[in-house]
C-alpha cells in the first residue's frame, strides 16, 4: 500500500514544527527519515499516526484520505506506528501481546518466530522482563500481526547495542519486500538505515534539507553531513 503526504503541517498545540512536508512512499519500499535531535521526525510520525492532530495538509494511504487526529481510524486504515517508547504492556507475555493485536491476514505467530528467533524462547515471558532488544522485536512484531499497509518505525534502535541494531534493521527490509508495506524508518544509525532503505530524506528544524535514493546518499557522506548541518533546502 502506498503512503502519500502532501503539504503536511505538524506541531504541538498550535505551534508548527514542520511546515508543508511532501513525501511519497510506494508500497514495498523503505524511506529513511533522518535528521538531528529536535528536527521534527517524531512529530511527523505521531501526526501521521493520528496521535497529534494535523495543522494542515493531507495524508493518503492507498486511495483513502486519512482523518486528522484520529488514531483509531488511522490504524484501521492500515497505518501502524511502532513508537520510540515501544508502548508495550509490561504485564502481558509475548504471546498475549501478539494475540491481542492479531488481525486476519497479518503475520502469524510462526512467522514472527521466524523473523525474530530470539522471541521464540520468550513466548511466555512478560514484556517487562524482556531485554531492550527483545522488547523492540516485540513492538515490531505487534505491528506486523496487525497487517500494516503502512508501517512507521520511530527509532527502533534507541538504547540498543549496535550489534542488535545490525540484526534488526535488515528485518525491516524483509518486511517491506515480503508484505508490500510502505515503511518509514526514523533512525539515528544513518549508515545502517541507508543499507536497508530505498529513499532517504533529511529533516532539519522541520524543513527538508536533502532527499535522494539511499544508494546515492551512501556514496556521498559529505553531502549528507552538510544536510545535517542545515545545508541547502531541497524540499
Ligand atoms: N510534547 C511536546 N510539546 C511541545 N513541543 C514539543 C513536544 N514534543 C516535541 N516538541 C518540540 O518539537 C520539536 C520537534 O521534536 P521531535 O521530537 O519531533 O524531534 P525529533 O526529530 O524526533 O528529535 P529526536 O531525535 O530528539 O527524537 C522540538 O523543538 C521539540 O522541542
Automatic annotation (TrEMBL):
Coiled coil: none
GO MF assignments: ATP binding
Every ABC transporter domain range: 3-230
Keywords: Amino-acid transport, ATP-binding, Nucleotide-binding, Transport
Gene3D superfamilies per the UniProt record, alphabetical: P-loop containing nucleotide triphosphate hydrolases
Keyword Nucleotide-binding part of the UniProt annotation: yes
Entries under Pfam families matching the protein: ABC_tran (PF00005)
Transmembrane segments: none
InterPro entries cross-referenced by the UniProt entry: AAA+_ATPase, ABC_transporter-like_ATP-bd, ABC_transporter-like_CS, BCAA_Transport_ATP-bd_LivF, P-loop_NTPase
Family named by the database record: Belongs to the ABC transporter superfamily.
Protein name from the UniProt record: ATP-binding cassette domain-containing protein
Organism: Gordonia pseudamarae
